[in-house]
Amino acid sequence: MLYRKAINNLIAWKEHKSNQGLLVVGARQVGKSTLIEEFARQHYEVLAKIDFIATPHAVDVIRQARDADDLFLRISALTDKELVPGRTLVFFDEIQEFEDILTWAKYLQARSEFDYVFSGSLLGVDLSGVRSWPVGFLEEMEMFPLDFEEFCLANGVTASVLQEVRAAYSECRPVADFIHDKMLDLHRKYLLVGGMPEAVQRFLDTNDMNALRRVHKGVYDMYEHDIARHMKDNEAIRFVKMLYEAIPSQLDKENKRFKFAGLKGAGVVHEGDLRFSRLESSFDWLEATGVALSALRVTEPCFPLGLTADRGTFKLYMNDVGLLTYRLAGTAALEILSGRGDINYGSICENFVAQELRSCELDLYYYNSTKRGEVDFVIQDSARGKVLLIEVKSGKDYKRHRALKNLLQVDDYEIDGAYVLCNGNLEEDDGVLYLPIYMTSFIGRDAAA
To answer: 400 Cβ partners below 8 Å, 6+ apart?
Structure first.
């Protein structure tokens, strides 16, 4: 099984919880169910799992429960498992098919001799109508595709090598050349494979690009199917599909900002549809389901960033860089694998950085003004009340960054760090720290700590 760092969160929940169940959220196909089942194998004698898609009749069986005791009798019957006190994990999966199961959470906790995990996809949308949200009875954990470090481990990179990379970052020194070259090679592969567990495993098993792309197509088609299945009307389905399908072409534009005018000819019938107020709920759906990541524009890079965020001006990324390269298709795969320095694949690298930062549970912002220029990402260190600037450069000319220099000269902003993520080795110059792009998550973890 692929190693997932999120298992440490599950272990911490088990060790420190009081009477709380655990709700695991995240987009489809990121590995939630597989991880929970592996966690149960390692830490429990009994796993009583109810999958509301695989066993749809379970919805009616549980809905008819009269009280907590009757509910436990039904769970035992549905799972054919003897629930052993203190040694059993009760796992409700695909709960978007039965949103009212969460109203039972507080009653389940009356039987504290068992542990409870709930999981599902599209929960940001499908659970909006839960009749009684069990406040205080659930701890929430979000899962994402494999990050780059997990991808490295899956590809046989040793913990000691990763520790050396982290030490180089912490000590602000270059990475040894042979390690740097290895990490850049893996990074290029990650841009093609992404972090969806099935795609990573297929890559490891076959090293076959066509087989890999079939996995990506399956995930992408599943997301499109979910849109049609869970939206309420045909117009909403049309808008969400249109926006999701437009992400690659929008990212491929020079400033990567999502422009409504670029949607003409993509299925919009009326010119009046091309307004944020008209499409806002569609953007909300994509973000709430976890299939897209948004970065809002801030007018001032000052803490807290939310105060100057412009909700109507944003960039939109795929939740997995492998899905983006699949959609871009063409010769991108060969060019990335070859490591050609004259090829600019900025949109792909920028999507990678968005994915890495979001996996650190950071909100994403960017800065743009006609006077000072644009910075790809602005994030905040909430513990210290500071902001960090991040530029992403995929080509050789990575020391050209006018906006960074302009913002660093504004004393009122109190910027705590300016980074350029690139293919070069670690170097500090004129107040800017140049980092290998594979170190992205280090910035994110430090800011989120």
So the answer is: none
